[in-house]
Amino acid sequence: MVRNKIDDINCSLADSLNLIGEWWTILILRESFFGTRRFEDFQQHLGIARNILTARLATLCDNGILERVPVKEGAKRHEYRLTSMGRDLLTVIIALTQWGDRWLRQEQGAPVNFIERDSGEVIPEVCIRSKDGRQLKTRDLAMVPGPGATDKTRERLRQIAEAWHKRELV
Amino acid sequence: MVRNKIDDINCSLADSLNLIGEWWTILILRESFFGTRRFEDFQQHLGIARNILTARLATLCDNGILERVPVKEGAKRHEYRLTSMGRDLLTVIIALTQWGDRWLRQEQGAPVNFIERDSGEVIPEVCIRSKDGRQLKTRDLAMVPGPGATDKTRERLRQIAEAWHKRELV
DNA sequence: ATTAATAGTTGCATTTAGCAACTTATTATG
DNA sequence: CATAATAAGTTGCTAAATGCAACTATTAAT
After folding, report:
1. What are the tens digits of pLDDT across the range A54-87?
2. Among A23, A168, B145, B169, who pairs with B149 as Cys (CB 3.0-4.6 Å)?
């Protein structure tokens, strides 16, 4: 799929989704965080079709999110492990899990709680904060061009800012 | 697709992905955060096929992430707006955008920076924190059954904890 | 009343995913 | 070492999802 074709803003979100936005990919990564490393284990835990799993693991390896390492020194079989790039996705995965807990399981409560290993305390919800630690909402945020902005991006951001003022200040 | 079929852990992540994990959905939500509300605008900004856009907007409305509201009092035409459930996804979207900034645009830098509207300061990276505000990494985290855990979930979490000890303490 | 814009729908081609059986290589076992 | 068992895919086929472009039906503007 070409999700960025006519996109008028060069956005890291679309790029990220091109790497991890395919069916199953995030659940594969969740399994990785759970400690799963072997093909058969991914397949059995997720119930994913074997050919799709093959394809997804290859994409993740090609993009540096997982790496294939020998099961042990000199072994021919390998396993799939998170790279630091992959581990860095944990924030996204936990944020999305917590969103599901909040909105899809209000009655039952979360099936799984993430705790800090040392203290055993449940971690608070991942959220957007200001530099000095205040929690921010959608309305508190705006966007400005960053160092990698193209002209198109600047233009789009200008239009967004303008539309916002029209709607918010009237 | 049935992504949760053989899943042996009842996970909010899989549920979340069933709502927002389809092609295009997250980019549609990004557009919503940018202020886009009308069908034609979504279509033109994203370059998405019209029938797919129709389907995605319907799913998002059905699940309470967007809502259809009349363009103005009494008008027949409507527009699509984020609900509070939808706005609550901003954390995920920013986390994923920032991940893309970090790993896919190391040279150029981020095309878009999120700032706090009042201060103009760029917001820090969304991250996982402990109760007292320390930043946590993958290794600092563990999982325990929450109030909504099933027997299967408990069993799986037990296995994960056991495997972790074997690998980490040797 | 007529036109233009908006918001879809429909039919068809292409791509992607699911399934189950088959293949190949690699470890374990007697 | 031979054989079996496991692991890790591959292949061929079916079903479902997506892309595209043209068409339709409202609604709003003049």
Report:
1. 999 999 999 999 999 998 877 888 999 999 999 9
2. B145
